Amino acid sequence: MHIFTLLFLVTLGGGLLLQLWLLQRQRRHVSAHRSEVPPAFTERISLEEHQKAADYTLARTQVGRLDLIYSSILLLALTLGGVLNTIARLWQTTGYDPITVGAGLILSVFLLLGILEMPFSIWRTFVLEARFGFNRTTPGRFLLDLLLQTLLMLALGTPLLWCILWLMQSAGELWWLAAWAVWIGFMLLVTWIYPTVIAPLFNKFMPLEEGELKQRIQQLLNRCGFTSKGIFVMDGSRRSGHGNAYFTGFGKQKRIVFYDTLVETLGINEMEAVLAHELGHFKHHHVIKQLLLTALTTLGGMALLGWLSDQSWFYQALGVPWESDALALILFLLVIPVFTQFLQPLIAMLSRRYEFEADDFARQQTGAEPLIQALVELYRENASTLTPDPLYSAFHDSHPPAPERVAHLQSGQPTTREALPV
What we know:
By secondary structure, this protein is mainly alpha-helical.
């Protein structure tokens, strides 16, 4: 057995065991605190609502555990099991040029994975979400979404793959640097066109109606010096009962989007506080920082791929006895998450810091209580557990746990590197 094969198996197995252990900790912790609402929330969340959130979390962890095992088996089948090698051989028999064959191989593998993982998507939507009253989509809309997602993947992914494979073949030893530049350009383009081209394919976006809410929001935007292409309400209720709000796009294409479920749930003060939180991300340049971090990590990944693509052992150790640019790319995309999963706590910690900073900004603009009330309503409406396991949360959660977040808002203390909860 090649040493990289052993390293891959040990890392995959170790990561799987770690994730299963974290899920088990989450289940034990949530179950242990199911019978009592945390003291900070006793006047805001009923025991029935708290228990619904606990049961929803437990159901999700059960599905997540099965999904983890299933995904690991699929990865082993594709690589060491020889499925990827078989698909690649079949594409070789088509007689097309290497770039077309390579793009077809990569797209067909992702399509296959999407089909094989569809049972979990169906179960989550029509069983788990429906059981807790969140699902509002229909089988027809579900299938239409899948079709649109597939067509988008083909429309956007095919030219991107063709370009990267052409660079791998023709741009010399530093092809990975040119490919990185192409990827960054593609990412920025998609971010720019998403609000006006991609998102409307799936949802309807209506301008926020005139009234006190819009007036208050516009005053807040003016105070913060934020300009956008508009404030929109999205028909999220067509698919789910969950509520949310977000910024999308950049430059002159920035949009503010509220789910209609959120508008129906929150009052004007709470909506203003939620928007102030989102504006906090803008004022602290979190989007730009995330883009820069993504660009740097992608650059490192491309450099690593550039080296690995020339190493015959990389292919052989992962179940492919021959070399090609497309195989290098698809093997890298399949395997790199196995090794980078252990960086997730660092990414989550940075994200949670950003959330605390955005909360600080919202508190300065609207006061603490409106945002606290909005958060409580969001936790209630989304059945988010108030008692996650600390280790599980540190590994997975991009947002701070509810008790920490509310306590931070009530304390009135700004987020600093020294004061940030870990």
